[in-house]
Write a structure and sequence with these properties.
It comes from Blastopirellula marina. GO terms for molecular function: sigma factor activity. Belongs to the sigma-70 factor family. ECF subfamily. By secondary structure, the chain is mainly alpha-helical. The chain has 2 domains: 99 residues, Rna Polymerase Sigma Factor, Chain: A (Orthogonal Bundle), CATH 1.10.1740.10; 68 residues, Arc Repressor Mutant, subunit A, CATH 1.10.10.10. The protein is 75% helix and 0% strand. The protein has 8 helices and no strands.
């Protein structure tokens, strides 16, 4: 059974919940930048989310949600990687804090680019979307993707480069005042 929240804490809890919902996808993206394996990143995101919900009482709205959440995410990423016996290189805490500030300051532009990217990926041919999904979501190696799609590793590299170029042009058009084409 969850503890009840008295009147004084109800407003603070509501503020925390609103901030979590607004920034959830940005936090997920941040965790993905810390932990490169998609499945591991999802695990770290879930652990971070649980930790944030457990510690909602320590949320200080005046300080801002994202700096607090990013700090928790860094701790959870380091803890998870240590548990897995992995020594993934992470930036120093000072560098991460500088990166956090840049992400927070450019949040709207980043959100616009992510929305444009999603739109442009959805416009790709099914085979190209499947290749990207295999490489980026399922974390397949180039060799595994080549076997799956009946290509050589070199052909995979060339196709991915071409897809990235298509996406880059599409995103630029999406973000320009007049554009919406692939």
């Amino acid at each position: 059974m969850l503890p009840s929240i008295d009147g004084n804490d109800a407003g603070k809890h509501s503020s925390f919940a609103e901030q979590y919902i607004v920034h959830q996808e940005r936090l997920r993206g941040y965790v993905s930048s810390l932990v490169t394996n998609w499945n591991d990143a999802e695990e770290v995101f879930q652990r971070t989310s649980l930790c944030l919900w457990r510690k909602w009482e320590s949320f200080d709205a005046a300080r801002g949600f994202l700096p607090w959440a990013f700090g928790v995410a860094r701790i959870e990423a380091k803890r998870y990687l240590a548990e897995q016996g992995r020594r993934q290189q992470m930036l120093s805490d000072a560098a991460m804090e500088a990166l956090d500030s840049a992400i927070i300051q450019n949040a709207d532009a980043i959100d616009d680019r992510l929305s444009a990217l999603e739109h442009c990926v959805n416009k790709l041919q099914v085979a190209n979307r499947a290749l990207l999904r295999a490489l980026y979501q399922k974390n397949a190696s180039v060799e595994e993707a080549a076997d799956t799609f009946g290509l050589t590793p070199n052909a995979v590299y060339k196709r991915v480069r071409k897809i990235r170029e298509l996406l880059h042009r599409c995103i630029d058009r999406q973000l320009s005042p007049a554009g919406d084409q692939l």
